[in-house]
Write a structure and sequence with these properties.
The complex is a heterodimer. Chain A is α/β, with parallel strands linked by helices. Chain A has helices spanning 2-22, 44-49, 78-95, 115-124, 138-142, 175-188; strands at residues 37-39, 57-59, 67-73, 104-111, 131-134, 150-156, 162-169. The relative contact order of chain A is 0.18. Chain B is built from 7 helices and 7 strands, in the order H-E-E-E-H-H-H-E-H-E-H-E-E-H. The chains are: A alpha/beta, B alpha/beta.
Chain lengths: 189, 202
C-alpha cells in the first residue's frame, strides 16, 4: 500500500516536471533573454571579439557589447545553411562600420549540435563570429524550443540585465535593412 | 481499494504518456514549417538485425528519385559505401539528418565513400520531401515495393513497416565494417560516422 502511494507521488512529480519543462515559452520583445552560460572560446580572436578575459565559462550579458545578435541554428537545418551567407554579410557590414563594430556583436548557438557538427558548419561557410554548441538542447529548451534559424537581438544594460528588441523565426532577408531595424529599435529604448 | 488505485495509476500514466507525446520537436528547421508530422516518442529500436560487422553486405537494386536504378554491387571494388536508412519522409529527426550530410560531402570524398539514403516511402513522396531539403548530392532510394524488402534483408524493418534509423558502413570489398542501429528518436552524431569512415582509409 505504502509503495503504491510512493509510486503515485512519483508519477505526480514526473507529470509536474513534464508540464513545467515543456511550458517554457519563447522570450518575446521587451522581455529578458535567459542568462545562459557558454564556454569561453579557445580561439583568441573570438575571445577578444566578445571582450572576454578569463577561461572557462561566461554569461551572455558579459559580452562586451551594447547589442547582441544571437542566432539559434542547426548544422542540419537547410534554411540555416542558406542563412549562413546572409549572416556573414551582416557581420561584414558591421565590421566595416567603425561607429558600431565595437557595439554590436553576433554569436550563434547550434541547437542539438555536437562541437564537431558546429565546427563543420563553421568551416563550410567560413563563419567569422563565435559559434557555440548546445548538444543537450538545454539552452534550446530554456528558450521555448524555437524553430531554426531563430534570431534574438538584445540590448545589454549597464546593470548587467538585458532586454530583447527582436525575437523572430526565419531569415533576416536583407542584412542591410535588418541592421537598420536593429539600430532603430536599440535607439528607441 | 486496489481497483481504485489501479484506475488512478492508469489515468496518471495516461497523462504522462500524453505529455511525452506532446513534447515539442527539438531543433526543428523552419524550412519545413508545419509540414512535419509529429510522431511523438517511438519505441527506440523495434527490430534485431542478423547482420554483424565482418559479414558481406547483402546486394540490392532499388529505384532512385532521379530515375535510375541503383545497385550496391556497382560500387564494389570502386567506393566505400555508407547506407543511411531513415524511418520515413516528413518526420522530425529524419528531415534534419540528410541536410547535414549534404554539407559533409568533403568527409565522404576524403574517405572515397558514397552515401546512399534509403526509406520505405514511395518515389513521389520522396521527391516532394527532397525538394523541400534542397539539392542532395547523394542518391535517395525507395524501398517501397515490395514494401521494405531491402530493410528486411538488412534486418532493420520495424513492426510498423518503417525502417530503423541506421547506418551501415561497407568497404570496397562489400564487407560491413560498422553498424549503428540508432534510437529512432535521435540523430546519430556526425563525428561517429566520420571516424568510422576515416578508419577505412587507414
Amino acid at each position: 500500500m505504502f509503495k503504491k502511494i510512493i509510486f503515485i507521488l512519483a508519477i505526480c512529480a514526473l507529470t509536474y516536471y513534464a508540464v513545467t519543462v515543456h511550458a517554457v515559452e519563447c522570450p518575446a520583445t521587451g522581455e529578458a533573454f535567459p542568462e545562459v552560460t557558454l564556454s569561453v572560446p579557445e580561439n583568441v580572436k573570438e575571445k577578444n571579439y566578445l571582450g572576454l578575459e578569463n577561461k572557462g565559462s561566461f554569461k551572455i550579458s558579459q559580452i562586451k557589447a551594447e547589442v547582441v545578435i544571437l542566432e539559434i541554428f542547426s548544422m542540419y537545418c537547410p534554411h540555416c545553411q542558406k542563412e549562413a551567407l546572409l549572416v556573414n554579410e551582416l557581420y561584414n557590414i558591421i565590421d566595416n562600420r567603425q561607429d558600431i563594430k565595437e557595439k554590436i556583436k553576433i554569436i550563434g548557438i547550434g541547437a542539438g549540435n555536437t562541437p564537431f557538427e558546429v565546427e563543420v558548419f563553421k568551416n563550410q561557410y567560413d563563419i567569422p563570429f563565435p559559434l557555440f554548441h548546445d548538444e543537450s538542447f538545454s539552452i534550446h529548451e530554456a528558450i521555448g524550443d524555437v524553430r531554426t534559424p531563430y534570431f534574438f537581438v538584445f540590448k545589454i544594460n549597464k546593470d548587467g540585465t538585458n532586454e530583447i528588441i527582436y525575437s523572430k523565426v526565419g531569415t533576416i532577408e536583407d542584412p542591410e535593412q535588418f541592421l537598420n531595424l536593429i539600430l532603430k529599435e536599440s535607439a528607441k529604448k | 481499494m486496489l481497483t481504485k488505485h489501479g484506475i488512478i495509476l492508469t489515468a496518471l500514466c495516461g497523462i504522462v504518456s500524453l505529455l511525452l507525446c506532446l513534447s515539442p520537436v527539438h531543433g526543428a528547421s523552419e524550412q519545413f514549417k508545419e509540414k512535419i508530422y509529429k510522431t511523438g516518442i517511438l519505441k527506440p529500436i523495434d527490430s534485431k538485425t542478423h547482420l554483424k560487422v565482418g559479414d558481406m553486405a547483402p546486394d540490392f537494386t532499388l529505384p532512385s528519385v532521379s530515375g535510375e536504378r541503383v545497385s550496391l554491387g556497382r560500387y564494389i571494388g570502386q567506393k566505400n559505401v555508407v547506407i543511411s536508412f531513415v524511418p520515413a519522409a516528413w518526420t522530425p529527426v529524419c528531415s534534419d539528418q540528410w541536410p547535414g550530410y549534404n554539407i559533409a560531402k568533403s568527409f565522404f570524398d576524403k574517405s572515397d565513400a558514397i552515401l546512399l539514403g534509403i526509406t520505405v516511402d514511395n518515389i513521389p513522396t520522396l521527391y516532394a520531401w527532397i525538394e523541400e531539403m534542397g539539392d542532395l548530392w547523394f542518391p535517395v532510394l525507395s524501398d517501397f515495393w515490395p514494401h521494405g524488402e531491402v530493410s528486411k534483408k538488412y534486418g532493420v524493418l520495424r513492426t510498423d513497416g518503417m525502417s530503423e534509423r541506421v547506418l551501415f558502413v561497407i568497404d570496397k570489398k562489400g564487407v560491413i565494417r560498422y553498424i549503428d542501429v540508432h534510437d529512432i528518436n535521435k540523430r546519430p552524431p556526425l563525428e561517429i560516422l566520420i571516424q568510422e569512415l576515416e578508419k577505412l582509409t587507414k
